[in-house]
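Reviewers asked in the last cycle whether our approach scales beyond single polypeptides. To address this, we selected a multi-component target totalling 573 residues and predicted its structure end to end. The input consisted of the following lines:
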Amino acid sequence: MRRPDNLPDFSKPPLAEVVLGVQFSPVPGYSSVDARQVWELFKESFPVVEERPLLAPQFETFGGANRLSSLGFHVGPPPVGSRLWFLSQDANHLIQFQSDRFLTNWRKGPNLQPYPRFEVIADSFERNLQILADHFMAAFKYQIDINQAEVSYVNLIQVQEFAEAGKWFNLCDSGFIDIEALNTNFVQVVKDREGKPYARFYNEIQSVFSVEGKRKAFQLSLTFKGKPATSGIPSAVAFVRDGRERIVNRFRDITTAEAQEIWGRLS
Amino acid sequence: MEPYDEAQITGEDTIIRRINPQQHIVWDENRGRFRISSKVFSPSSEPNGGMSVDIERLMLADGLDPREYVTTPVFTGSMAFSAGAARALGLIVGYDPIPTNPYHGEVWGADRPNRFSRQQRKGLAVASRWYVELDDVDVA
Amino acid sequence: MIDSLQGSTAFQDEILCYAPTADPISSLSPPRRRVRVELPRSKWMADLQERLDEITSLPRGWDGYDGRPVSFNAALFAANLIERLFVAGVPSPDVVPGSDGTLQIEWHRNQYDIEIDVLGPYEVVAYRRNQRTGNEQELELQTDFTALAGWIDDLLAEQQTNKKYG
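The resulting structure, written as structure tokens, was:
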């Protein structure tokens, strides 16, 4: 995968995490006992396993007067099973798996690994997703049916005071206001060439503290999610690539020139 | 079962479709009455899926009372239409015996086995009559 | 370097219905310590929650054949749709399970028949008939339900007209 020309580039972006993921129809016949076989596919590079609560299904739909709560709904019997984290030894790379989701995370911490670049992460994501899809076909005669894809960039911008918001973001000009906390978000509906909505672009800036409460930062999260054009892997990868371009351009648009210089803007 | 049209099922043969009164009935404010939902006349959306039915003639041939059979073990209402009426709508009817019901059959779309058009669903409703009636519920 | 974070506590406890859009797919999100305030559901969802719970728990063979309960995914997608389409003043729809795990949302009122067949996430076939004119429409929809929102608006408009003129 090649980096698109004319996409803004930074030598030291404040990236803390990049997440690429898909949601697919649940695998018929899959149960928790099959999770070990899935881990076997990846355990050479991801030898550490942790469990997390399941992610609820998500659907980006459009039309109608009502914006939906991000809390989601619960219907029927409680879902059974767990979401598994397969971690690389250095904990910088992570695969998240459950019976209807597959995600790849790159994290900067805890050892401050330099950002390997989207192309590397995306190639790994596509390769591993194909491995999973091949396994589903072999073991369950199931052709992966992807109904949602997403890409998320999480940036952490360390600050002395939250009043610095105007230094980092074009959206904020706090002037001399002593800001104690900041939480702002907006959601953009993204349309295709024919004007039909197909994705949402979530933009969130949140003031955050370190655990001991002494250090401050802004968390800038940019997430692009929706239904790819078709249900196969190539369409999901194309969707994620499209999302990444939008995210990088949005990052350029909402952060200040001063901030971009600090982050080593190259183009 | 692969969709097929059974030659031994004649046009006059009665095809029975069971109704669950707790699940299949909706309120029709336009009429001021309850009615059967059109969802009843839908095939399974799975590959080769059809609409489950009971074949009356098979039950009669085995000396059973069909009305008693289709309301056992759970009481349900049921409707009936002729195989000929289904075929006139572009549907096909075949045997599909299963361990729990040797008189089981399927109705499939001739073009798309697992999807009936709106006209086909409506046509089945219009062609149907009560077989085991539910009081104060319209068929169509 | 900030390697562990928690959301800022200032003001957020005072902001009713605070619902950050941060997705739990991020591994950086710490476990939430606060009880989150539930956003109020629409009247339709309040009316239908129990019904959706019921049809996703139906026993095998509920239809007299080999009927399955409505699939969790189809029901969730339908709930998403119901919530999105809600218009105050229009009564809640009926919800009917299919034998194959699908479900149909329907209204028969105000001289309209509206049937929204949810075959799965992003797979909807919607039908409307205007009894007064005989006009019928059928739509196959995936993500954009703007047309259905218009149908519900028409339902409300007809209802209000009926109320006005008796």
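The longest strand of chain A covers residues 146-159. We regard this as preliminary and will revisit it once experimental data from Aim 1 are available.
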